[in-house]
């Protein structure tokens, strides 16, 4: 069995177990989206939500990839005519329906986002929060392009894999069994963003968190608001890119 397939099975099992635990204990945060993220790390998620609100409308048909238990699904669901949340873990999608209180415009589809079970040119918007490393980057990009309508948008927030501190931290999580080899090798880099820019008609990107590794422990001393402002000021000062912790992009087909 190929390593990527073994890893995908392992990831599905991990998220199924996490969802089962959440269902048994009702142990999932009622806060969603950027509100669920600690303030010093919140800025990329605020930008992600801002961009989504810009491209979504009440006529939008929207697909979320790697939706999981719906942590970042509320805004695309609220601002769309039809919202389809997809994930490899069906158990996670059951929690998502509970979290969003199963609105009439919500559908859930359990699937592998390397093989999306949707017709070509089906969606006005495709969204993804933190899921790109769970699939082959080129295959996933091809599927996003295929299912988007002409003039449609892909919006994502994800981690960047250049800063050696963040790379080392992810490797530690791998050693602890919290990550698979495939997610380490597929973690987005600037080159992937450039590939999206080349494949889509238009693309805009933003980078955040050059010193997130320092800001979280520092926030315990100077407070979350001060730490948030310090992180933002640092990113603005050096125009952070390759050192970033997170990035947001919007690409138009």
Describe the structure in brief.
The protein is an alpha/beta fold and 253 residues long. The chain has ten helices and seven strands.
Structural class: alpha/beta
- On the 0 to 100 scale, the average pLDDT is 94
The major beta sheet can be summarized as:
7 strands, mixed
Query: How many DSSP H or I helices?
Result: 10
Unreliable stretches covering 5 or more consecutive residues: none
Instruction: Write the CATH homologous superfamily.
Output: Vaccinia Virus protein VP39
Subunit organisation of the chains: single chain
Strand arrangement, largest sheet?
A: 3-2-1-4-5-7-6
Determine the fraction of residues in helical runs and give it as a percent range: 40-55%
Briefly note the CATH topology name. Rossmann fold
CATH architecture: 3-Layer(aba) Sandwich
Shape: globular
CATH class: Alpha Beta
Total number of distinct structural domains: 1
The first-to-last residue Cα distance is: 35 Å
SSE string: HHEHEHEEHEHHHEHHE
Q: Any idea what the radius of gyration is?
A: 18 Å
Number of strands: 7
Walk me through this protein's architecture.
The protein is an alpha/beta fold. The chain has one domain (3-25, 37-252): Rossmann fold (3-Layer(aba) Sandwich), CATH 3.40.50. Helices cover 46% and strands 19% of the residues. The protein has ten helices and seven strands. It has helices at 3-25, 43-55, 74-78, 90-100, 137-147, 164-175, 181-185, 190-199, 212-222, 224-238; strands spanning 61-65, 82-87, 106-110, 123-129, 148-159, 202-208, 246-252. Strands 3-2-1-4-5-7-6 form a seven-stranded mixed beta sheet, with helices on both faces. Strand 1 (61-65), helix 3 and strand 2 form a beta-alpha-beta unit. The radius of gyration is 18 Å and the shape is globular. The mean pLDDT is 94.
């Amino acid at each position: 069995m190929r390593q990527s397939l073994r890893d995908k099975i392992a990831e599905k099992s991990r998220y199924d177990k996490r969802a089962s635990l959440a269902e048994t204990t009702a142990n999932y945060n009622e806060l969603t989206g950027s509100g669920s993220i600690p303030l010093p790390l919140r800025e990329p998620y605020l930008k992600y939500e801002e961009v989504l609100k810009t491209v979504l409308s009440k006529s939008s048909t929207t697909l979320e990839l790697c939706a999981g238990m719906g942590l970042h699904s509320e805004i695309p669901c609220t601002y769309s005519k039809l919202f389809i949340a997809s994930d490899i873990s069906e158990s996670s999608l059951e929690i998502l329906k509970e979290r969003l209180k199963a609105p009439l415009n919500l559908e859930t589809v359990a699937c592998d986002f390397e093989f999306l079970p949707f017709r070509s040119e089906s969606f006005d918007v495709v969204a993804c929060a933190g899921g790109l490393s769970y699939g082959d980057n080129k295959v996933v990009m091809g599927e996003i392009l295929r299912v988007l309508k002409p003039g449609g948008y892909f919006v994502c927030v994800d981690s960047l894999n250049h800063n050696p501190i963040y790379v080392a931290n992810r490797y530690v999580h791998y050693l602890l069994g919290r990550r698979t080899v495939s997610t380490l090798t597929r973690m987005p880099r600037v080159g992937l963003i450039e590939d999206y820019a080349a494949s889509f008609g238009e693309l805009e990107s933003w980078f955040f968190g050059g010193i997130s590794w320092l800001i979280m422990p520092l926030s315990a001393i100077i407070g979350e608001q001060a730490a948030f402002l310090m992180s933002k000021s640092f990113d603005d000062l050096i125009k952070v890119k390759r050192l970033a912790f997170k990035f947001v992009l919007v690409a138009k087909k």
